Amino acid sequence: MTGPGRRGLNPSRSQLSNGTVILAKESRVTPAVTLHAQFSAGSAFDPPALGGVAHFVSRTIDRGTRTRSADQIADDLDNRGVSLAVTINRHVLSIVCTCLVEDLEPMLRLLGDVAMNPVFPDADVATRRGEIVTLIRQDEDSPAAMANEALMAMLYGEGHPYGRPPRGTFASVEATDRAALSAFHAARFKSAGLSLAMVGDVEPARAIDAATAVFGAAPPAMPEPPVFPSVPAATNRRARVIPMMNKAQADIAYGFTSILRADPAYYAYMLMNNVLGQYSIGGRLGDRIREKQGMAYYVFSSLDANVVPGPLIVRAGVSPANVDRAIRSIDEELTNMMREGPTEKELDESRQYLIGSMPRNLETNLGIANFLQTAEFFGLGLDHDLRLPGLLQAVSLGDVHDAARRVLDPARAAVVVAGPYSGQHAGTRT
Asked: What is the rounded CA–CA span in Å between residue 95 and residue 333?
């Protein structure tokens, strides 16, 4: 249950007989404990005909249980000075709170009740439906949101969970009712689909015992594993323009599919992306396009390697007059990285930045809990915090150059521009 003694985070891990995983880390920084429950219930599991149901669940799961009304839940939280945060991404839904150590057991009981016994009251479903419709309308009015959503659909196709809007559509949200929410919850919130991280001023044995008392009685059950369609490698450049002529700024989303998180080359991709779009003031992209040329309000790159080949995306916000120049500059920077790779200085400083930022990310209970959940989700091991610096140090210039050659070919990019742009040249290269 617990790894051998060593320096580093050295968390405890226990798996209950029903499949629930309990992660515990004692931290004496503050007299508080962070609870982070993570379920295999992200938007990738939406039924194809009912997009956005997972997001809808995340907005309504705390609106009452079989034994507590929404007002009672709110009162219980307020009386202890605690707030409950529910977040969701493509793969997981998380329920997170931080409480005083003396409130650990009652807060675990409340969290467990909210997670496992929601009733989705009709009145709250109707209220949240209206809020979600408003969020979708806001997305449709945002060039940045429209560009990103269109890029994901272009990269993965609308038949792939990554290619569908996580919040769903107006039609799917209107069709989602209490029965649909309950059915999704019953299918995804299973004992073997839960990992619970507890980090704070509490002994791991007490934390594990308290969690076992709340979650250990659930019958063993495993949610259905995801089945993702394969994504064929791009063979040509694709472009789309979304005219939004009433806007002042154009947003560019430019990207590729990349690799699995489990790919041994992941750390080379991680460093390549840092050099390209995150190192220093936005990396090479920020240095050239924003600082030297003054063409962009923002520009950066991001890498989301996951259990499917995740996207590597360049984002930029520019004046409509600078769209074509900005796209050409992105093409040039990616071509240079593909042809020449990073410099030794860029690689060394990116390594130093990523290794140096890890302690900062682990300064808080929440940061540690997030790190433990990520390591658990990807099967990285309890000692991942100790091994990560060595994994980054082992990456060579050649490894990063190989990564760039594998993924950064502008001739196979997908490019979307949303905003006040006529679209004559968005997909061209010069």
From this structure: 40
Architecture of domain 12-215: 2-Layer Sandwich (3.30)
Contacts of 157 (CB under 8 A, 6+ apart): 163, 229, 231
What's the token pair of residue 17? Answer: 């007989």
DSSP 194-223: EEEEEEESS-HHHHHHHHHHHHTTSPP--P
Give the span between the Cα atoms of 50 and 35, in whole angstroms.
31
Nearest to 384 by CA among 67, 96, 6: 6
What are the pLDDT digits (tens) for 90-112?
A: 999 999 999 999 999 999 999 99
Whether the CB-CB separation of 39 and 189 falls below 8 Å is answered with yes
For 238-419, CATH gives 3.30.830.10
Instruction: Give the model confidence (pLDDT) of 330-381 as tens digits.
Output: 999 999 999 999 999 999 999 999 999 999 999 999 999 999 999 999 999 9
Neighbouring-strand partners of residue 418 = 242, 251
Return d(Cα 159, Cα 51) in angstroms, integer: 11
3-48 confidence digits (pLDDT tens): 433 478 999 999 999 999 999 999 988 899 999 999 999 999 999 8
DSSP string, 346-405: HHHHHHHHHHHHHHHHTSSHHHHHHHHHHHHHHT--TTHHHHHHHHHHT--HHHHHHHHH
Mean pLDDT of the 392-415 span:
98
Q: How many helices and strands in the chain, by DSSP H and E?
A: 15, 11
Strand boundaries in 186-334, DSSP class E = 194-200, 238-243, 250-257, 296-303, 311-318
Helix H or strand E encompassing 97:
strand 93-100
> For 19, which DSSP code?
S
Nearest-angstrom CA–CA distance, 378 and 233: 24
Domains 12-215 and 238-419 share a fold: yes
Amino acid found at 137: R
The phi, psi pair for 187, rounded to 5°, reads -80, -30
Domains in the chain: boundaries:
12-215, 238-419
3-state secondary structure of 135: helix
